[in-house]
Each structure stands twice: as structure tokens, then as C-alpha cells.
Amino acid sequence: MQALFIVGVAGGGLVAPILAAASADQRPHILAIVAVCAAGFAGLLIAPDSVPVVWALILGIGLGAGQAVAGVLYARRGRTPDHVAALSTVAQTGGYLIAATGPILASILHDATGSWTAPVTAFLVLLAVNAVASMRAGHDPKPGRQAG
């Protein structure tokens, strides 16, 4: 199952940035990525034992795509190569610090409830918050602008 997850991450990470980079507006791509991730999490929540391999593959595709499309956003929104580097540094540092709390908080929720329902529901809520925040980052008010 983990191998299929990794295959999904690689596939999503390869295809999504190519598609997103071809568009001036990355919002539709971001929404598609959010929908794929939501489908994977919802599958784990609603029918965890039915086809867990499918949920792992779907989540892998969504998470790989999301990570890779972030790189497109840095490149598209940066005005100069130095600005792209600064955007990437701030976003990745902050993102990884926030993401590092995920497994810890998920474990705490699981231990407190004895179920994966609360952690997976929390991931779905965070995914919705991410979607709203990403809509601003995904829209370039000046299409065609790229770093140096």
C-alpha cells in the first residue's frame, strides 16, 4: 500500500506542475488537487476497509500534486530570481513547521478518541482552509509575469 502511495506522489508531482505552469490562473488546478485529496480522505473516513489501496493512491496523487504545484506558484509570483527564492524559503519553512505538527496532533486525537475519525476529519477541515487560502495564491493579477 505504501508503494502505491509513493507511485501516486510521484505521478501527481510529475503531471500537476506541467499542467499548472501552462495556465495563467492556477486556481482550477488547486481546486482539482484539493478535490483529489478530499476524495482520498473521505474514502478513508467513509469506507476505510473497502479499498484502502485506492485511497492511498488517490491521496498520493493529491499530496504529490499539491507539493509540486506550490513550486509553480513561487516561480509565477516571484518578480526576480531572488524574490522567487525568498517566497520559496518562507513558504517551505513555514509550511514544514506547520506540517510537522500534523502527525503529533493526529496521534493525540487518535489516542483521545480511539478512532481515526477525528484525525481524518481534522485533515478534511484543514484541507478546506488550505483551499480558501490557496485561491489568492493561485490567481496572478498580472498573467504572464514570471521570474527573471
From TrEMBL:
Superkingdom of the source species: Bacteria
Keywords: Membrane, Transmembrane, Transmembrane helix
Ranges annotated as spanning the membrane: 6-23, 30-47, 53-75, 87-110, 116-135
UniProt name for this protein: Integral membrane protein
Species: Rhodococcus hoagii (strain 103S) (Rhodococcus equi)
